[in-house]
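Researcher: Please translate sequence to structure tokens.
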Amino acid sequence: MKALIFSIVILQSVILFSQDKKPEISKVAVNQSKNLTYEGNKLASEKNFIDAEANYRQAISKNNKNAVARYNLGNQYYKKNSMGEAFNRFKEAGETANAKPQKHQAYHNLGNVFMNKKDYSNAVEAYKQALRNNPNDEETRYNLALAKEMLKKQQNENKDNKKDDKEKDQNQDNKDQKNQQNQDNKDNNEGKGDKDEKDEPQKPNENNKGDKKEDQKQPEQPKEGEGEKPKPNQLSPQQMKNILEAMNNEEKKVQEKINAQKVKGKPIKPEKDW
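Model: Translation complete:
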């Protein structure tokens, strides 16, 4: 029984030891990773992005501790403006690298990615991390000061925008409240007017009353001796007589005018001398 318990303890120890111990990378894999990185650098200098990317990826697969391949691959993505991929590779390089110069370079470029994305808060932290690994780099220090200035400006703009939005919302609320009050007053006035018109008794129309009285009157009968009055489209005998006399007088005037012209005649021009 004791032997069985002892065997179980030994077995558990072996299992725990095997779990804690990571598999060592063979020297062959390390050398292959270095060679692939070198080939990737050569292709990158020739601006052959596709093949360079393939070599860097193979180098990382051969040796997952190859920070140089990750860093160089991040630079290629950065040049292609693929900031998402560049961010991942620089971050991996900074976490994988053991030497401070490599960490400094990785976090410096990581800060550049954040600056490109206008994420100034994270850019400040990345540059600080870079300076922790190399406090003497003036370029990193300059980028850090620039990131802080841009962050301050961004915060002030956001603050002003929030203030403007708050004032805009307040003005809109006041406007809506005023419009609602005007609408309520209008509805109250319309309701009052309708009530007055409904309650006021209607007065009889005086004109209609007069017309009714006139309609009730009997038409006057013509007196004896007057005869019937001429219709609007007919002329009375006296009117016809006056029209004939006027026509005769007009014709007489025209004839006298013609006779006067015959007496006067037109002047005759003298003949030319021979």
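Researcher: Any highlights?
Model: Confidence is low (pLDDT under 50) at residues 222-230, 263-274.
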